[in-house]
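Revision sheet: C-alpha cells.
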Amino acid sequence: MVRLMGRSGARSARRPSGPPARGQRDAHRSRREGTTGLRSALTGRSVAGQVFVLQVVVVLLLVAAAVVALVLQGRHDSTVEARNRSLAVAETFANSPGILAALRSPDPTAVLQPRAEAAREATGVDFIVVMNTDGVRYTHPRPDRIGRTFVGTIEPALRGGTVTEEVEGTIGQLVQAVVPVEEPGGDVVGLVSAGITTEHVGVTAGRHLPLVLAAAGAGLVLATGGTALVSRRLLRQTHGLGPDEMTRMYEHHDAVLHAVREGVLIVGDGGRLLLANDEAHRLLGLPDDAEGRHVGELGLAADTAALLASGRIATDEVHLVKDRLLAINQRPTDVRDGPAGSVATLRDSTELRALSGRAETARERLEMLYDAGVGIGTSLDVSRTAAELAEVAVPRFADFATVDLYDAVLAGAQPEPGSVLRRSAVSGVREDAPLYPVGHQLRFVASSPQGHSLRTGRSVLEPELARAHGWQAQDLERSAQVVEYGIHSLITVPLRAGALVLGVVGFWRSDKPAPFDADELALAEELVARAAVSIDNARRYTREHSMAVTLQRSLLPRSLPEQNALDIASRYLPAQAGVGGDWFDVLPLSGARVALVVGDVVGHGLHAAATMGRLRTAVHNFSSLDLPPDELLTLLDELVGRIDQDEAAAGETAPVTGATCLYAIYDPVSRICALARAGHPPPAVVHPDGSVDFPDVPAGPPLGLGGLPFETAALELAEGSRLVLYTDGLVEDREHDIDIGLEQLRDALAAAGESPEDTCRAVLDARLPTRPSDDIALLVARTRALGPDRVAEWQVPADPAAVGAVRAEVTRRLAEWDLDELAFTTELILSELVTNAIRYGAEPIRVRVLRNRTLVCEVSDSTSTSPHLRYAAMTDEGGRGLFLVAQLAERWGTRYTPEGKVIWAEQPIP
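Predicted:
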C-alpha cells in the first residue's frame, strides 16, 4: 500500500454495527434533508445557509442599482433627445422656404402662426416661436402670448449661433433651442425657437418605471428560488462538511487512485517521490520503499528519471522502460498557489504504438494509391505513363522500379507473347544501380520472375534475390552486380489490361533491410492494375493517332511536282492531341503557271483528315479547269456546304462545320500572283531586300457558309521574292492572339535565310511550340521569272493566209532555241489552232510560244466558245484537227480569261 508521507498507518475504523443498507441510507437522507435542509439554509448555521443569505443580499443590491441606473439613464437620454429634437426642429423651420418673405411681410403673424402650429403638431414639440431680433414673438401656441417678449437667451443667436437651454417659460419648465434666420448675405433678420416641456421629457422614464420594478421583483423571486435550490444542493453534497464525511471522501479517493489502470506519480520539490499508485509501481518496477526517495535513486532509465525530476511539462512523451513503451504526461502542481512539485501519469502504449504503426502504414499505402490514381495517366503517351508509374512507386514503396513493355505496345499495336520487350521506364533512389537502362531490349528467360509473370499473368515475390537461381539465370554477370549493389528483394507484376499482357513491372528493394511481404505484394498488384488501364488507354490512343497520321500523310502530297516557276519548301507537323485537317498542295497549270493552295478543315481526328482529302481532291479537279482563285473558292464553298448537309441528314454526331483555304496562282511570265482566301490567315511576302509584309488580300468567309462572294487580289512579285503560306496553328495559340503571332512570324522571316528551306527551318524554330495543340502546314515559294528570251508572241490577223507567216516565225524562234526537232510538230499544232481561231473565233488573235520545262504553244482569241475533241466520220470534211493536236501534244486544253479564251498545247523538250 502506498501512503502519503506523514499519514497514519491505519485507515478510519468502521462503525461496530456496520454500515446501514443502501435503501435505508437513502430514505434516512431524504427525511433529514426534507426536515433540516431548508431550515439550515435560512438560519445560516451551515455554509450553505451563509451562501444563501449572501446571494440574496447581492441580488437585492443589484436590482436596486439597476432600477436607479435605469431611471437616471432614462432621464438623461430623454433630456438629450429633447435638446436634439428642439434644435433640429428650430433649424428646420428657420431654413424652411418662405420664412424670409414672411418676416418681411406687413403681418408676419398671419403667415407664420399657421405654419408654426402645423410644424409643432407634426414634430411633437411643445412650441415653435418665431420672433424678431428684439425678441418680440410673432407666433406662440397660446395666441395671447403673441407680441410679448421671448423668455430665454437670444444674444448668441443674434450673432449667428445657436442656443440650447433649460428655462422656466410661459408654458412651464422646458428645454428650448433658439436659432437665427439669416439672409443670403449673413444678416440675422429673425429668430426661431422650439422647445419641449420637462413634463414631457420625463414621461418616458415614468411610464417604464413600473415595468422595470415588476421585472426586478420577478428577477428577485427567481434569483431567491435559484439560490435556495443551489444552497440545498450544496448542503446535500457536503453534508455539512463534517469530519466523518471528509474521512470517507478521502478513503474513496485513495481507493480510486490505486484502482485506475494508469500510473500516477506525485513528485515534490527537489525531485522526491511523494506518491506512486499501484499501477505506477508495476509499470516502473519501483521498490516498496520508493516514497520519500529521490527519483534518481529508484533505478529508472536516465531519461525517464531526468523528466520526472525536472518537473517540466510533457505531453504523451514516449520512454522505453524495460520492454514497455510508456507515454508520460506531466504537469506542475504550483499553479494557482499550489505546492511545488509535479504530477505525472504513465500509460502503457506498447500495443497502441504497434496498432498505430499498422494504421500509419495503411494510411501511407492508401495515400500512394490515391496519388497513383491522380498522377498516372496524365498524358496519352505510353512511355510517359510508364515513367509516371515508376515515379509514384519510388521511394514510398520500392527503392527502384522498372517497367518493361512489348515493342508492339509502344507502337500502339496489340502485344504478341514471346516477342521482344523494351525497358520503358526506370526510377530509383540512386542513378548508379546496375539495372538495365531505358531503351534496352529484353527477352526474359522462362525461369526468371519476369518470364513467369509474362507467361502466367501472375505476380511473383522473390524475398531473397541472392538465392533466386531462376532470376540469376537471366544474366549471371548483371545479377551478381545487382546483388552486390545491395538489391535484395523483388516483386514482379504483369501489366494486364483485360486478357492482354502489356509488359511487366519490377519493384526492387535495397535500402530497407526487410524483404517484401505478402501485404506489399497485394499493394503492388493494386498499383499496377490501376496503371495498366492508363497504359492501355495510351496504347489505344497511340494506335488511333498513328492511323490518323498515316491517313493524313497519305492524303498530303508525298513529293512536290517539278516546275520552273517557283523554288518550294514545305513542312507539315501534326498536333500532339490528334491530327487535324490542315493541308497544302502545289499544282502546275498551263502556260508555266503554278497554283499554291493551303487549307484547314475545322476539327481534329479521322473525320477531319478524311474531309481534308476530299477537299484536296476537289481542288485538284477544279484547278484542271484553269479557274481564277475566286471562282475556284466559290466551287469549293458549295462542296463544303453539300458535305455538311449530307452528314447532317445522315445523323452524323460531328459534322464538318467549315474550312478555310488560300488559293494562289503565280505566272512567271508576268510575275503576277493572283490570290483569294476564304477565312484563312493572310500570306506573307519576303521581298528580295529582306523586308516582310502581309499583303492586303480580301478576307472572304470560311468555306461552307455560302452566299457570300470571294475576291481576287493581284500582286506583282519581284524575282527572288518569297511567298509564305501557312495555317493558323503557326501564328495562333491559347496564350497569344493572332496579331502577336503575326508579328513574331514577321521577325522570324526577316531573320531567315534566302532559300525556302532556310525559311521553313527558321520559322519553325521560332514559332513551333513544345506540344502543338493544332496542326501546322507551311509552304514557302521563292519566285522565278520567265524572261523575254524564253517567250515569243505574235499578233495574227483574221486571214487564213497569215497562218504560213506564223509558222515561219515559229520555226525561226525554235531554231534560235535549238529545238529544230520540234519544228514540224509545232507547225502542225499551231496551223490547226490558228486556223480554228481564224475560222471560229474573233479578233484579236494572238500566238505565244513559251520555252519552259516543256514547249508551250498558246493561241488566244476574244470568244468564249471552246472546241471539243470528237471522231470525224469518213464523209466529214473537217473535225480532225483537234484529234491531230491531241496525238502530237503531251497535254492540251482550254482556259478562259476576261478577254476570251486560250487554247494551249504542251510538247516535251528532248
